[in-house]
Amino acid sequence: MHHSPIAAAVALALAGAALPAHPAHPAPAPATLPAAAAAEATSQLPRGVRPLHYDIAITPDAQGASFAARVAIDLEVLAPTRSITLNAAELAFSGATLTPRSGGAGQSARIAVDEAAQTATFSFSTPLAKGRYRLALDYTGVVQTQAAGLFSLDYDSAEGKKRALFTQFENSDARRMIPSWDEPAYKASFALQATIPAGEMAVSNMPVTHTTTLPDGRVRVRFADSPKMSTYLLFFALGDFERATANVDGTELGMVTRRDALAQAQFALDASKDILREYNDYFGVRYPLPKLDNVAGPGRSQFFSAMENWGAIFSFEYALLLDPAISTQVDRQEIFATAAHEMAHQWFGNLVTMRWWDDLWLNEGFASWMEGRMTARLHPEWHTALNAVRNRDHAMARDSVATTHPVVQHVETVEQASQAFDEITYSKGEAVIRMLEAYVGEDAWRRGVRAYLREHAYGNTVSDDLWRQIERAAGKPVTAIAHDFTLQPGVPLIRVADPVCKEGRSTVALSQGEFSRDQPERKPLSWRVPVIAQIAGAGTGGQGSTLVAGGKGTLSLPGCGAVVVNAGQSGYYRTLYAPKAFARLSAGFAALPPIDQLGLLSDSWALGMAGLQPASGFLDLARATPLDAAPQVWARIAATFAQIHADYDAADPGRQRFADYALARLAPVMARVGWNAQPGEASSRVNLRADLIEILGQLGDRATIAEARRRHAAMDSDGQAVPPALRKSILAVVAQHADAPTWEAMRKAARAETSPLVKDTMYSLLASVNDPLLAGRALALALTDEPGATIGAEMIAAVAANYPEMAFDFAIANMAAVNQRVDATSRSRYFPMLARGSSSSEIVDKVRAYAEKHLAPDARRDAETAVAAIQDRLKVRTQRVPEIDSWLERNGI
Q1: Catalytic one of 342, 364, 423, 514
Q2: How many other CB atoms sit within 10 Å of the CB of residue 509?
Q3: I want to staple 804 with a disulfide (CB 3.0 to 4.6 A). Which of 246, 394, 778, 837 is the partner?
Q4: Cα-Cα-Cα-Cα dihedral of 641, 426, 232, 143, to 10°?
Q5: Residue 530 in 3-state DSSP?
Q6: What digits encode the pLDDT tens for the residues 741-765?
Q7: Which residues are bridge partners to 40 per DSSP?
Q8: pTM of the full predicted structure?
Q9: Residue 520, CB half-sphere, CA atoms under 13 Å: how many?
Q10: Which residue spans within 776-888 are E strands per DSSP?
Q11: Cα(417)–Cα(404) distance, rounded to whole angstroms?
C-alpha cells in the first residue's frame, strides 16, 4: 500500500526462473496454515478451523449501494468442534449449510453475528469431527461510500454522472464483502464470479475465463482461480472501463481506467514494463500470475493512494494518470514511485506475506526502499536518490518523541493494525533496510532477498526469516544490528569529537546517545550503529567505517581535513558534531556532495530545534550554500524557511523580519530558475521552480503573488500564461491569497470542470485560502455533495494547514457527517491529524477529550502523537524562535 499524501513495501532458480503454477484448489496440497505456525501467529479467531479455498459469486447493485452474494468455503476442521467462527462485518446472512467433503448429509447452522467483534459464528447440532468440509453461505452486504470493503466512486463524464465499484480490503475489510478468515496467515485460493450489467467491465486478480450472457441481458463473468493468498489481497472492480495491455516476459500488463481516460495511463504502462523486467531479474523469481493490471479510480482516501492487490493494483487517479491539463514533473515521478512500490509488493507482501500485522514493515518498508532504488536505477536523471534524506527525516520526526513505537510492533486489534501504517513502518523501515544493505553490500543483500523469497513463496514469515537469509548470504552478523533498530524505538545520536590528525591520518572518537525531542534527559537506549565517514573532498579514498557498539567507537580515516560522518547518508542516526568540527564543515559546505549537504542541513535543523546545538546552525549552512547548489538542496532550504516562518506567532513582528530575510535569500535562486522553462532543463530544476513559486507565495512575496495573479487572469486568452507544469503552483498562490470574488470564481471553475483530477485539485485548493472567513466557507462546502464524497475530508485537512483549531473544532462539531467522508481505517487518526499543526495549548485538552470519549485506550496513539507535535511546536515557538531572532540581529538583518 502506498501512503496517501495527507496523511507516506518489496525452487526455484535464480535470475529468470519462473515460479511453478500454484494449485488452484488446495485439496491435495499441504495444509495452508501448519499447526506450528498457527500456534505462533496472532489471531482474533478460534484456531481449530482453517480455510482452504473460497468460491464466491457476487451480484452488485451499484445504484442501490448493496450486493447479494454466496460463498462456498472449503475448510479443514483441525479439532472436533460444534461451531465455526469467522470474520464478517455489515453482512446479513440468510442461510448457512455445512457439507462433509468426504460425502454425506449436510447440516444447517444456527447463525450468530457479533457486530462489535466483526465475527459470525455458525453452530451445529452435531459435533464436527476432524476433516474437510464445505461451508455454503448466502448473504447480502452494503456498498460503502468510502474506501473500505466494496465501495463506490462517482465521477463526471460526457454522458453525465457515473459510478464505478472497487474493493479495498487492507488491512481488515475483506470481511465487509466476504465472510472469511480475514487474517494474513490464513492463506487460501479464491474463485470469483460476478453478475454484472451488460457493457460494463469487471476486473479481479486473475484473468476472465468465462463470460455468459443471461436471459435478462446481464452478464456472468468468471475469473481464473487465484494462487494461495491472504484475504486482504483479493480485488474486484466494476464500471465503464477501458483497458490497454502490453506483454513483458510472458505477463500481460494492463491499465484499466474510466472511459476516455486511457491515454493518461500511457506513462504508467511504459513505466510498469520497465519495472517488471527489473524486478523479475532482481528477485530471481519471475512474477507468477498471468496478468498484472493497474486499475485507476477517481477521488481520494485519507488512508492510502494505491493498494497492491495481487495481479490487480488499485490506484486513485492522481497516483496513476497524467492529465495533460494539470500534471507536473513531480506527478510523473510520484506515479513512477507508486508503480515501483506496488509492484515490489507483488513479491514482498503478496508472494511472501507477513504472518501478522506485527511485521507489516516487511511489506511496506521493503516496498518503500525498493521504490527509491528502482526510481534511481531507471531514472538517474531525476536524482531521486537525494530523497532518501527526506524520507529518513519523516521517520525521525515521528521516532524522536515518546509516542513512537518499534518497527516490529505488537498488534492486537484491527484499530491497532490500521494505525501501524505510519512513518515508522514505511520510512524507518526503508531507512533501516538502506543502512543494512550498505553494511553488508548490495550483492550480499540481493542474494539474501532471493533466498528468502524462494524459501517462503506462498507462505507467511516474520522478520527473523529475512535476517537469517541476509546473514547467511553476507557471512557477517546482521541480526543483532537489525534487532537493535527494529525491536526497540528511537533514533541513535552519534556525537562526533574534533578529529585528531597525525601522520596523515585522522582519528575521530564517536559516542552514542539518543536523539529525543521530548525526553532529552532520559537514559539513552543502546544500538549497534554502522557508521561510514569520509574526509570532505577526499573521495572514496578518504572513507572509513566502524560499528559503534557499547556506546563508543573510533574511526580512522586516511587524510586530514573536515570529517563528514554518515557520508552518503545511509545511516539511521542523527550526527552531532563538536563545535569546531561543525565549523569546518560549514566553511567547506559548498564543496560537499549534494546528499551530504542535505544530511548536514537535516541534522543541523533537527538538532537545533531540539536544543542540542544552536538553532542558527541551519541558517549558517543556508548562508554558505552557493547559488548553483543542487536544486534539491535549495528546495530543502526553502521548505525550512517556510517552516520557520510558520513557527512564529502571526502577531510577532519578528515573523515579517524573517520573511524579508528568507525572500532576499531565495530571490536570486528564483531569478536564476525563472518562471519559464528552458529547453532540456533538468527535472530537478523544473520541480524547484514549482516549489519556489509556492513557498515565495507562502512567505508573502508581492512580486510572486502579482505574477501568479497576472498569469491566472490571462489563462483563458493566453495559452502560455499557465503551462500545465505550473498550473497547480499558480492556482495554489492565487487560492491562498484569494479575496471573496476570486474564491467564488475559482469555485465556479471547479463546478464546471469535467476532469476528476483537475476538479479534485481545485476543490482542495479552495480550502487552502488564508482568509479565515473564506476558510470557514470552505469547511461548510466540504460537507456538501458538491466536491464529491471523497474530497470533503481532504478539504477539511487543507483548512487545517492554516487554521488547525478551526478545522478541528468544525470536524468535532460535525463528527457524524465527517465520519461519512473518511474511510473507517482512517477515523482514529484523522481528527487528531487536523490538530497536530497547532501551536495552541488549549487544543491539547480538546484532542485528549476527543480520544477519551471516542477512542478505545489501545487506539489512541495517533492522538497522543498529535499532542506531542503540538507541545513540540509550543516549545519551538518559545525557546527556538528567539534564537532565530538573535541570529538575525547578529547578522544585521
Answers
A1: 342
A2: 15
A3: 837
A4: -10
A5: strand
A6: 999 999 999 999 989 999 999 999 9
A7: none
A8: 0.94
A9: 8
A10: none
A11: 15
